[in-house]
Amino acid sequence: MTKNAQELKALLSSPKKIVITTHKGPDGDAIGSSLGLLHLLKQLGHEVRIITPNGYAKFLHWLPGNNDVITYDENEVESNKITSEAELIFLLDFSHLSRIATYADAIENSNATKVMIDHHQDPDSEIADIIFSDTGACSTAQMVFEVIDAMDMTTYLNKAIAECLYVGIMTDTGSFKYASTTAKTHNVIAQLINAGADNAKIHDLIYDNSSATRIKLLGYCLNEKLRLYPENNAAIISLNDEELKRFEFKKGDTEGFVNYALAIEGIKFAIFIAEKDGMVKLSLRSKGNFKVNGIANKYFSGGGHMNASGGMSELTVNETITKVEKIINKYKTELNKAN
Ligand code: 5GP
Ligand code: MN
Questions:
Q1: Which listed site, 121, 125, 173, 175, has its alpha carbon 20 to 30 Å from 202?
Q2: pLDDT band at 4; cut points 50, 70, 90
Q3: What is the Cα–Cα distance from 174 to 208, expressed in whole angstroms?
């Protein structure tokens, strides 16, 4: 057993008050890994709550344990109380406190032992006492499985843990198609299926359960909002507030849209821009060795993985498009050569 796993196992040997938190705008991996871990910790006799900085897409609400999740932005007082009483805090799927927005102060001020499990670059070693970091891992959910395994606790795997971790791995690997998907990933998935994860049901609930307006919004984006820059191997899709309202936008509705731009022959860099909560948010995706996390960090105060990153813009949607066009031109040669 690794030293980290040993230390964690020792901490978990007596009942504790535990908080699990994850990054703002939680995605399938953030929620799946958090809930998967929650179901393990509850079996071990701990009192566990998940506190997310804000809410998340409805397609994740069916996950077992969803009712144990509190959103910080809507329940500040309760969240602060639970956080100050926690003896152990897990930080999942993020590596810098800036990723948990206004919840960061409460975490920083807490005296709890903190454990980070994460697959992002350059983890901030100041924010946790025990750090499980694997930038090569496809997902935090896979890492949670590995931590459970390293603590010799796979006997606790059940349907609830398996479904949650399956969702995390499936969503962060684009349904097992990204390069981060390895034989190890499939091996973990096999064990999750053996533990009760119903793979066909999970794919259906996550991907084939959209509102009609979401599918129509996708159609609108592809028909009317796709800007192609074939000489630069790039494409942009953008949506403003009015358009989102027109299609009755709900959290999570535009997730995955950027991948359609990337699915076009010759496109190696796809950018999705949308006005959300009074901000302009960007999703950057790329193929091959063209890295987008540096671009997200340099131009949009963001970050992420080599081929999937995000960030913000202080400009309007149209000004952001112009800024992105300049970036595309600047990286033209690199994009042409990327493979
Ligand atoms: P998405 O485009 O799906 O919102 O985000 C893709 C990935 O980029 C996320 O998994 C996360 O790793 C990263 N990411 C998204 N937004 C931000 C941000 O504002 N800051 C940082 N550091 N990373 C982000
Ligand atoms: Mn992740």
A1: 121
A2: very high
A3: 14
Which protein residue's CA is at the shortest distance from atom 22 of ligand 1? 303
- Helices (H), strands (E): how many in the chain? 14, 12
The CATH number assigned to the domain with range 212-337 reads 3.10.310.30
**Which residue is listed with tokens 């040997």?**
13
Residue nearest to atom 14 of ligand 1 (CA): 310
CATH fold of 2-207:
inorganic pyrophosphatase (n-terminal core) (3.90.1640)
Instruction: From 29, 309, 312, 313, give the residue whose CB has the most ligand 1 atoms within 8 Å, as the site to mutate.
Output: 309
Report pLDDT digits (tens) over 98-143.
Answer: 999 999 999 999 999 999 999 999 999 999 999 999 999 999 999 9
> Is any ligand 1 atom within 6 A of the Cβ of residue 307?
no
pTM for this model (two decimals): 0.97
Please report the pLDDT score of residue 277 as a whole number.
84
93 CA: nearest ligand 1 atom: 12
Whether 311 lines ligand 1, by a CB cut-off of 6 Å, is yes
In this structure, the strands spanning 47-52 and 17-22 are parallel
pLDDT, tens digit (0-9, with 9 covering 90-100), for 42-52? 999 999 999 99
Going by C-alpha positions, the residue among 204, 235, 195, 252 that lies closest to residue 325 is 235
